[in-house]
Automatic annotation (TrEMBL):
Known function: Has a glutathione-disulfide oxidoreductase activity in the presence of NADPH and glutathione reductase. Reduces low molecular weight disulfides and proteins.
TM helices/strands, residue ranges: none
Name assigned to this protein: Glutaredoxin
Organism: Aliiroseovarius salicola
Domain of life of the organism encoding this protein: Bacteria
Keywords: Cytoplasm, Electron transport, Redox-active center, Transport
Biological classification of the source: Bacteria, Pseudomonadati, Pseudomonadota, Alphaproteobacteria, Rhodobacterales
Record's keyword annotation contains Transport: yes
UniProt KW Isomerase keyword: no
Family: Belongs to the glutaredoxin family.
Stretches assigned to the Glutaredoxin domain: 4-64
Length: 87
């Protein structure tokens, strides 16, 4: 399974929803809280092509996007193959 990284902030409902989906799929992920760390937020924005909202989800080097993007990918049946490295 590919490494999953999710940039979050503590009070973000969309972050909690994205993590819930990943947990339901038994995905182990690295969570980076950017709430009070401007350097990590800048890192996220650089990786996410300027996107500044959280969450920002990455599977390996692939930028998935935010919570809605993650759920859309799952509904389309494309998340599991991406996680397994087939996409």
């Amino acid at each position: 399974m590919k490494t999953v990284t999710i940039y979050t902030s503590a009070l973000c409902g969309f972050c909690h929803a994205a993590k819930r989906l990943l947990n339901q799929k038994n995905v182990i992920f690295d969570e980076i809280d950017v709430g009070f760390d401007p350097n990590r937020r800048q890192e996220m924005m650089s990786r996410a092509n300027g996107r500044h909202t959280v969450p920002q989800v990455f599977v390996g080097d692939t930028h998935v996007g935010g919570c809605d993007d993650l759920y859309d990918l799952d509904r389309a049946g494309k998340l599991d193959p991406l996680l397994q490295g087939a996409a």
